Amino acid sequence: MAIQQRAERTRASILRAAARVFDSQGYERASLARIGREAEVTTGALTFHFETKADLAEGVRGQAREVTGQAIRIADGAGESAVRKLVAVTHELTLLFATDEVARAGERLARELGSGEGIASECPWRREVARLVRSAAEEGTLRSGADATAVAALITYVVTGVELATRRPGTPAGEPWLGETGALDGSAPERLERIWRLILPALES
Amino acid sequence: MAIQQRAERTRASILRAAARVFDSQGYERASLARIGREAEVTTGALTFHFETKADLAEGVRGQAREVTGQAIRIADGAGESAVRKLVAVTHELTLLFATDEVARAGERLARELGSGEGIASECPWRREVARLVRSAAEEGTLRSGADATAVAALITYVVTGVELATRRPGTPAGEPWLGETGALDGSAPERLERIWRLILPALES
User: Fold this and answer.
1) Is residue B32 part of a domain?
2) Alpha carbon distance B61, A36 (integer Å)
């Protein structure tokens, strides 16, 4: 039992290290050697738990699905309208993608590897966003006549846009937010809040 | 002169091949050998024009800036309001990112390499979007009270969101557009059009 607990701790610490490396370097540049060093385990221990880099990526993506799933359940539990739940879900996701290396790594890996073969292609948060938009249309809190599919796509573009923006802190030229003289450079949640203030009136009935 | 023309043709065909490889494989996986094969040139000819992969990436990004710059000038030339120019610019960009490998490669490289050191950090289309939003605010075609910085960011998120969506045709789970039963899967310009129909009323005065 003690051995099993130790093995689980090692596995968890390998996955955390892998998430850090995938998040900062991307899948292709990430090496097993680097991940082993970050996790402070031997190559033997690393390959005992994960034989290949693809296995590690799949492990990190599985954990990312768990943490994003938890964040969505928390926001979804709030007893409000589906539109307000949608706003809450995007705030939870944005906070997660700004602060949680596993969730960030999951997003980066999904972009770089796609659904791939063998790698589970699930992207639960996009599906949840689409589901909440449909609920909002059914319960009548989505503005009548609004194109629900376009609303769902728009919201996922915004969440991803804010997430990508947190990856280039040093590139003012690429960021209209920073191009304004004297403008706040804006944390991820602040950016999201300002976007919602802009678009919510067009989406909510 | 004939020699110089031939050299320029070779250089152009190397850059086109590099764009194709960077666009489909990303920077890290792209190899000089593969690019040489795609361009049907010898390694000697390839390295005569571009010594390193970083040089090739910089060459492709330079060309991408040119083609996106042209697209923006075309859309910007239409004698309409700044808001309508903005819509036209996003349509030109989306069409370009859906069809032009150089422009697509430029976007992918910008995401993967960031502004880097030595690589020109310019991202003219985002700057142009920000400029047009400011013009719209000045001429009064932007809805009064709209947060111009947020508008610029929102528009760049949408253009990038549509571009990224064209990169995962095989992943319905990740795409709310495809999750709807019977919904159009939507070309990039159609997606953009549906998003604009949703948000333009909130942005235009």
Assistant:
1) no
2) 34
B80: number of Cβ within 10 Å: 14
Round to whole Å and give the CA distance between B1 and B187: 44
Rounded Cα–Cα distance for residues B16 and A95 (Å): 40
pLDDT, one tens digit per residue, over B78-108 is: 768 999 999 999 999 999 999 999 999 999 9
Nearest to A162 by CA among A61, A92, A64: A92
Is residue B142 within 8 Å of B97, Cβ to Cβ? Answer: no
Structural domain range at position B180: 62-203
Token representation of residue A72: 């969505």
The closest CB to that of B176, out of A114, A149, A170, belongs to: A149
Cβ neighbours, 10 Å, residue B45: 17
- ipTM > 0.85, yes or no: yes
The answer to whether residues B150 and A197 touch, using CB atoms and an 8 Å cutoff, is yes
pTM of the model: 0.90
Q: Is residue B20 part of a domain?
A: no
User: In DSSP terms, which residues pair with A142 in a beta bridge?
Assistant: A204
- Say yes or no for a CB contact (<8 Å) between B160 and A161: yes
Residues A27, A57: contact at Cβ < 8 Å? yes
Judging contacts by C-beta atoms under 8 Å, the chain B residues touching residue A157 are: 157-158, 160-162, 195
